[in-house]
Amino acid sequence: MVEATLHTDLAPVDLALLERTWSPKRVALFNALEKASVPRQDRPQSLHWDWGKKVPELKLLEARGFGVLCEGDWQGAMMTKTASSVSRLEATRRKPIVYVDYLELAPWNWKVTPLKRQGRYGGLGTLLFLQAVIQSFDEGFGGRVGLHALPQAETFYAGLGLKRVAHDDAKRLPYYELDSQAANRLMQHDGGAP
Amino acid sequence: MTQNRTFGSLGRDWMRQVAAAEDRHEAVTAGGLASDLGMLSHEGEEQPRVLGRLVEWRRLELGMTEEQLAAAAGIELGELRAIEQDDTEARSIRVIFKLAQSLDLSPEKLAVLAGLAETRNDPALSEATVRFAAKSSTAKLSKEQRRVLDEYVKVLSESPKGP
After folding, report:
1. pLDDT at A77
2. What b/e readout covers B38-68, taking b as 16+ CB neighbours within 10 angstroms?
3. What is the DSSP secondary-structure string of chain B?
4. Arithmetic mean of pLDDT over chain B
5. Which single residue of A34, A56, A101, A171 could bond B35 by disulfide (Cβ 3.0 to 4.6 Å)?
């Protein structure tokens, strides 16, 4: 097991910096999938993301960023927003939440089933998501967290206790939300048994 | 970027269990921001295939196999297949221009479709693209599809107008 550190002051534009090391790995993975003739629907759904092309738009974004650094490389990152993000669950409708605008792992940490490839470091997605839950408690939002999951990530968030609220036609992704009860259950596991 | 917290305090056993639990899932990615910035173009239904289907149909119309077109254009077979599957990673000016020449299409307009060139005020191209995207939902080249393709190719073959 290796030591990892959490950084809590990434800016959205830092995604372009992460991409400098992640992008060549994306390309290498794309080539490996291409060589193995893996159908497009079976490929990682964020394979083609290129934050480097979005720098001007990223500069305008207001968000709080988290990143996990290990062995000199960024292993995963998350961006959260609080302003203008509200609950879509019936019981807490319009109450404030922390919204996870972005959560992604370095390509070498992806599980790529068609290539029988496991990620190098595990558990990073859970660790990052827990930071959003902690932020929600710190902000007085009761642990409520919302996000749009890529289809391949739906079972992960459902497993953490998030409820699928609806498919969001505007975002073209399913919207999930963690309520306070589920957040408390999740935080009881922080440092204990998951 | 400031170091804030180490994960050592969480406990090794817990970390191992979290890693094992997470490993059962295919991905952990949240994509709200990517959606806002128009980066979801590969997730199937989000955006209609236009460039890939156009290249594939035009190739079929000209009676060429994938291998023949790749050889004629001087590109790798894998590059052509990736273009036809609308993988944006495979798109480059070099590949698009070579394909345009082999398919007798306007390189400039094909580059616009590939997202490699800025769109000039070209309502004819925009309208033709929308029509093509709406009607080209299957890969077999039927009589109707050939008509749709011919209509689109006519617009794509015209020289671009000045700004």
Report:
1. 95
2. ebbbbbeeeebbbbbbbbbbbbbeeebeeee
3. --EEEESGGG-HHHHHHHHHHHTTSS---B-HHHHHTT--TTSGGGS---HHHHHHHHHHHTT--HHHHHHHHT--HHHHHHHHTT-GGG--HHHHHHHHHHHT--HHHHHHHTTSSPPPS-HHHHHHHHHHHHH--SSS--HHHHHHHHHHHHHHHSPPPP-
4. 76
5. A171
CB-closest option in B2, B14, B89 to A191: B14
Beta carbons of B7 and A173 less than 8 Å apart = no
Q: What is the pLDDT of residue A180?
A: 96
The model carries a pTM of 0.66
Return the closest-CA partner of residue A12 out of A64, A53, A68: A64
Q: Which of 3.40.50.2300, 3.10.20.310, 3.40.30.10, 3.40.630.30 would CATH assign to domain A5-191?
A: 3.40.630.30
Task: Please tell me which residue of chain A has the smallest CA distance to B21.
Answer: A123
- Cα A14 to Cα A77: distance, rounded to the nearest angstrom: 10
For residue range A126-172, what is the model confidence (pLDDT) as tens digits?
999 999 999 999 999 999 999 999 999 999 999 999 999 998 888 88
Asked if residue A54 has pLDDT above 90, the reply is: no
Q: Where are the domains of chain B?
A: 51-157
Identity at B95, one-letter amino acid code: V
